[in-house]
Amino acid sequence: MADEQMLELGQTIKDEPSFSAPEGDYRFFVKSWDVSMFQPRDENSKIPPCKQVDVTLLIPYRDEMGNVVYGQKVEHFKLLARLKFVITKFFIACGIGKSGDEFTLDFDQCIGKVGTCKVQQQMGSNGNLFASIDEFYAPDVAPQVSMNDGLSFMEPTPQQQPRPMQPQQQPMGYGYGY
Asked: How many structural domains are present in the chain?
């Protein structure tokens, strides 16, 4: 692909967790977005080459061992008029407008928003199961979520690791202001 992002020797890279949550309804956090070009794999594709917005969602869930996993799922929104319903459903799920509203294609307003989505397991062409987002729910019709209720939507960073508590020192003084 002509627009494939190239890595450079000496570049710092990070292994980001794949998204393999079990089927169910989850809350998601909009982490970031970027623009790329969609190139169909063959000439018989129903979708022509076009710009797309790649939105990175953070979805915390518990793995089979009960550990909290911060899965990242990149959703690709093709910028085609006939697919605008998918983009509007995403904006509505983020709490930006309601059904029937007009939307400005400004994905910056989605950053930091929390919404609800339905996750399904699908079989990939290589025979492996992977999780995909099947639907974005409007806030007023979103089902009760139990898959990741109560989990933090912020990835832990080394700076956020728990630190030992230091005992509070009482100020020196005699109680008379000196």
From this structure: 1
